[in-house]
From TrEMBL, chains A, B, C, D:
<dbReference type="Pfam" id="PF01546">
    <property type="entry name" value="Peptidase_M20"/>
</dbReference>
<dbReference type="InterPro" id="IPR017439">
    <property type="entry name" value="Amidohydrolase"/>
</dbReference>
<feature type="domain" description="Peptidase M20 dimerisation">
    <location>
        <begin position="229"/>
        <end position="312"/>
    </location>
</feature>
<dbReference type="InterPro" id="IPR002933">
    <property type="entry name" value="Peptidase_M20"/>
</dbReference>
<dbReference type="InterPro" id="IPR036264">
    <property type="entry name" value="Bact_exopeptidase_dim_dom"/>
</dbReference>
<dbReference type="InterPro" id="IPR011650">
    <property type="entry name" value="Peptidase_M20_dimer"/>
</dbReference>
<protein>
    <submittedName>
        <fullName>Peptidase M20</fullName>
    </submittedName>
</protein>
<dbReference type="InterPro" id="IPR052030">
    <property type="entry name" value="Peptidase_M20/M20A_hydrolases"/>
</dbReference>
<dbReference type="Pfam" id="PF07687">
    <property type="entry name" value="M20_dimer"/>
</dbReference>
Length: 435, 435, 435, 435
């Protein structure tokens, strides 16, 4: 096994750097999806793209038409084939790839998220993607959460299955999910039914906790349930010098809401979070702003705590409208659930990795306080009696996730591929052939 | 005289509608400047454009290079000649046109502002520019303050001088000023020296007060001194779920500043104003916002009151940085002075308009509470011993200035042209020829 | 006349200092009322106290029962007679004193306000009341608005009428009004009917504008209409450490309301004001505050502007409740009207003061931007066809009104008495006797 | 043992109700201290009061002199002996009582807190103290945290030791601590040296968690480190109508601070808390408030988290001063440390209570998120090698601690006394006598 990984190493780095250079935001991953698909095609995977991959109507937080069209046009210019574009048009990105060995065995699903973030990547020469010239070519978009690595790991695992298909049993479903940021894509894939008959579900993330390369956490707890809200305030414009009194100030509504949202009382029963990640308001300096837009997110350690935050947030957002005599519109554009990994799976993972040259240590559990829409997939698998987990793969980070200088050690890639493939080998080995 | 106007009427309407359709923001009036210049060229005016028209370094609030380049490119596509563009490049828009009769007489300067506003024009069929198909072709830019009318009036007066040059004495200087909105262009023209030897300065606005068409105010009081500030907050980004405590929230700094700015105490000595006309902050929903940008404006009835507002505003803006542990940068990007019209000029204007068929009534004075950077020009003329005024030309307004549905009655255009030309005729008539 | 004043001078100083030492807040002027009454009794005035002086139900902003009882008890200890206290009990303070010469002539009403402010008087030796040992004996109560002087002037005028009764005609009504601060007492005296048949109404204030001693303004403009609101927020208490989420924070409602109230947009049609003069909230450090109390005041140059401010204030106060999920109660506890002095009265006053040794100069008009509930009395007199004015009497002020170091020059007292008495002499002289 | 308790029951109820009726705030527990002392004197305890009991200079958050004098005077009127008052004067309340059996054995220290809260007790007949007529006779002061019960338990245990002294060995130190609320008294007793040679330290609280009567938690975790701050803002007063611009608004500083304090970012490493428990500002409605006072508290799960909160709080409080151009003074008036109970003690307690008729169940540990200055005492004992714990005694609560209707079931009193005395018996039994 380790030999397989060893040979794969150079390819992993190349994939990673290619995807890193071409980051795309959620539901505009046209080129990314296409590239993943073209690689998988060569390995005999059956591909599902566009509305064959996800329940289009279950997506939330889709960019507006102008933006989608802009990126579809761009993808075309970048060489994405018309037939692919036609299927993905309207933000139906991401793909599902299946591989059936034809032999009875477990159905294993693996999920890898593929979208990037609206961050302007550092060009400082101390930032390795910059000094090694694979940093983002797209202004204000960056793989600052490691999803370029996730795609790469997925491809590495997919290639393993393809190359070892004779030794394997059962079925494999790869979910290359769009729009994880904002919790917008997982539910749409889940609703398409991919998780209904899955025996084992595996997903993971690189580098969230202080774990060095070679360390793996078999499960995580602490992923927060979350709700994402878009808010629009509508007021009245007027000349700020001549008629300040006829204006209805939407900018101030957004400002009041922002300040008060962070003051939602802490809760004695657990962790909560709130953020106003974007605010845009007003048109010109001497005009009372008649419009404002905010992107808000709340989280809670449990569904109840998330509901507590959501209710307070909505009341505050509405009060900030009446405070300045404006009107307000709240749209829910994303959500994640809390996540409970199957603890039964821990020992399997530990056992599978025992002889690995890459995985030095598997800890049972770690905790984080982010949010993950893989939760929808996991909960679906658990509901149908399967087992599921979300793993963490250690890497030193000089800068936190979502930072313009975020980068990870590429040595984590073979560690993760080795973990996944050893688990698969242990679960779905074709015992006779092995004999 | 009135006959001259009568014949001009159709041309006024055509000019107005053309300029209305192609609104351009301050310091990007490339096409507008070009079109004004090409018309004036035909009437033997001497033209000064680019750095010949204004002191380039005295401009404030210049758009950034990308924006300028974008609009220069667009102007080129719209047919502006290379030789013109070369001179205007970098936002050196606007022009000065002079006409010297060669006969001794007063030097009269006339100022017309030419820029538009960042407003999305109404397309409702009750909005005449929409129903008559001359509304803005540029999204999010609109002549919502009547400067399209001002340009038109200037051209009407310029044509009169050209056609009546044999009956006139003295010199005429037309200042087609860029970037009045935000108080950014007048100082740069003033510093170029155009106002140093001027005997009479005339400027004006259409439609600010409830005066119907035919009513003219010979002077205005109440224009406020003003200061325009751009503010940038710099904080730290971090993952809002995983590390809320390491973020330094620039969005909240802007929100706190906004709310507290409107609370600057009213002043017992006169009118003050404050507005935060734009606020942009943050990059993504789950990232603590590390950057925020605000456009702020304060005003005061006197220089002292404006200083009072500016000092409070700066203290509040800085305090909002320390409140959230961010850093802040304040740039002054525009200003206007208070304005004192020469009352000595009132009776001249009344006398000049006595026999007009267009001007029904001239009132001595009205008051407004906007701001005007023509104040820099006026104060310069007054300083050198000249006389100066700023007039208002009545028109019914269904919507206030700076409103997406702003429109004026085109009947005001001949009224204004008639007022200006009658004043000129009275001031600079070639008495012998008249004999 | 001036001789009369000359002899009175020492008495004026004594009265002023006595009243200064015993300041009492609105509707608790038990001792003050008693002392004024005991002096007037000796001069044959007919006195009306308690419910004979004012329409008890028309008072607003009455202190609560505990406070009234406390001060009634204190007044008793200070020697106020039982028979007086019985009439005044429940905050029915102030008195009306009438003098009828029995001869036909004008009915002149004069109003003097008698209440003090909740301010802790300075004990610094540069403060004359402190260095001359007549500063307030009541902690946190102070005559910081000059009403001690007003009472004194009223008594000086009253004594003049008593001593010169044989030379005078007509009737005189002295209104020693309680609770001017907060605009709480005038309406109650007005509703009692005292102003219905008045020919001339005179009131005044010492020292509001930069006028030195000897200067008198015959009329004032600019007094603002005003509304005074008391606000109570009711939330839920909870342990701030153990159950922060079950609290409903009334303190934060009051804080949000305060900050937003000052941000009510300035109005283009004239002066507006807003103040939160008091805020009390919470019971203990580690308890989420379940109660908050605010004293708010808005003003406007006209009734319409005051209504504009009142409506915005109420909306903001209510929004601040929903913002923090509390409930709120708004009570209107005082108000004043705008004030229009009779300009017809100006020349009379100028003429009357022509020969005064005290009044050096009478100007026609000055403007201030405070509020005065004498406006209710004036407007009542005007409504019935009488004439009315509110005068200002100049004095140098080292500190503004309502400041802990406020003090006026006692030389203003004879100036004011001389102005009032000369007006009276001119209006109501018994011409035959004068002959 | 249980028989002892059975006989004591009526006395416990009487004591509890007496102390409940006479609640006193921290450092004014003159009558409470005296009453405790007089009871202990009868049982041969050696008493230490005033500066013999605590390090007077180590107290924080002492009421001002006027308040202390007021309550000392009141205590005198209530019959506290002069000799006692002299020692306690200046807020040196609380007492230490020691009992030495003269026989070698462990030194056991027991701490009971004695102060009440600034809460107006409910008089509703559904509130048992009201219906049974033992509610607070002191307006706005109430035993709403069960310290009346704590005193009672302490007395019950003290009486047991006195009555069973022949069967016991070692030494006993009872710390009846003042001013636990606000974390103000424990450090002063600790610094006096009482905890230096203690082998076992026991303290406890009634009713914090959902545990019914008979349930006892042997240890608690989760008590938060905390810092208590008093804040004063100093501005400038001015007349809100006439000179709003010369005021410097201290009320607004406090309001801005309050709103922003609750918005201190949540911390990923653990629980934090913040509260502004009191705010008082301003003097009169039409005066710009020149003074404001706030009582603030922050908490953190660890010392580091508490420091994080304290630093942010101070920066915000200071920024709110510059925001409104006022000055500010921050005083630290109390603090608590985090608390780590000795887990080694758990089994001892479980064993000791095994045969109790009162204690039905002992759980090892529970968690709360309040703060306790007993932490200073515990940490001192631990530092010197002793063992220490803080127990919880279950009781149903219809209302939370610090609520005007807070009440506990008196049945918890014998449970707690039985727990303490059984532990003592087990630890310090005179084995020979027992023989």
């Amino acid at each position: 096994m380790s030999k397989y990984i060893h040979n794969l190493n150079q390819e992993l780095t190349q994939w990673r750097r290619m995807f890193h250079s071409y980051p795309e935001l959620g539901f505009t991953e046209y080129l990314t999806t296409y590239r993943i698909g073209k690689i998988l095609e060569e390995w005999d995977y059956t591909l599902f793209i566009g509305k064959d991959a996800l329940d289009s109507d279950a997506r939330v937080g889709i960019p507006n038409k102008d933006i989608l069209t802009h990126f579809e046009q761009k993808a075309k210019e970048q060489g994405v084939e018309e037939s692919w574009l036609r299927k993905m048009t309207g933000g139906n990105t991401g793909l599902v790839a299946t591989f059936d060995t034809g032999r009875p065995g477990k159905h294993i699903a693996l999920r890898f998220d593929i979208d990037a973030l609206p961050i302007n990547e550092s060009t400082h020469q101390s930032h390795i993607p910059a000094s090694k010239a694979f940093n983002s070519i797209n202004p204000r978009v960056m793989h600052a959460c490691g999803h370029d690595g996730h795609i790469t790991i997925g491809l590495g695992v997919a290639k393993y299955i393809y190359e070892h298909q004779n030794q394997l049993v059962g079925k494999f479903t790869f979910l290359f999910q769009p729009a994880e940021e904002g919790g917008r894509g997982a539910l749409a894939m889940t609703k398409k039914g991919w998780l209904a008959n899955v025996d084992r579900f595996y997903a993971g993330h690189i580098g969230i906790k202080e774990m060095s390369v070679g360390n793996v956490a078999a499960t995580v707890k602490g992923f927060l349930a979350s709700t994402k809200l878009n808010v629009r305030y509508h007021g009245n414009a007027s000349h700020a010098g001549m008629n300040p009194e006829t204006g209805k100030n939407a900018l101030l509504s957004a400002a009041s809401a922002s300040i008060h949202l962070y003051g939602i009382p802490r809760h004695s029963e657990g962790t909560t979070r709130v953020n106003v990640g974007r605010l845009e308001a007003g048109s010109g300096r001497n005009i009372i702003p008649d419009a404002a837009y905010m992107e808000v997110e709340v989280r809670g350690e449990t569904k109840e705590l998330n509901n507590y935050m959501t209710e307070h947030a909505k009341r505050i957002i509405n009060s900030a409208a009446t405070m300045h005599d404006t009107e307000c519109e709240i749209t829910t554009v994303g959500s994640t659930e809390e996540m409970d990994c199957s603890s039964s799976i821990i020992n399997n993972i530990k056992h599978a990795c025992k002889k690995s040259n890459y995985v030095k240590n598997v800890i049972s559990e770690t905790s984080v306080s982010g949010s993950e829409d893989a939760s929808y997939m996991m909960n679906e698998v658990l509901k149908h009696g399967g087992e599921a987990t979300y793993m963490l793969f250690g890497t030193k980070l000089d800068y936190p996730h979502h930072h313009p200088s975020f980068d990870f050690q590429e040595e984590v890639l073979p560690v993760a591929v080795d973990t996944f493939t050893r688990i698969i080998e242990q679960e779905n080995i074709y015992s006779i052939g092995e004999g």
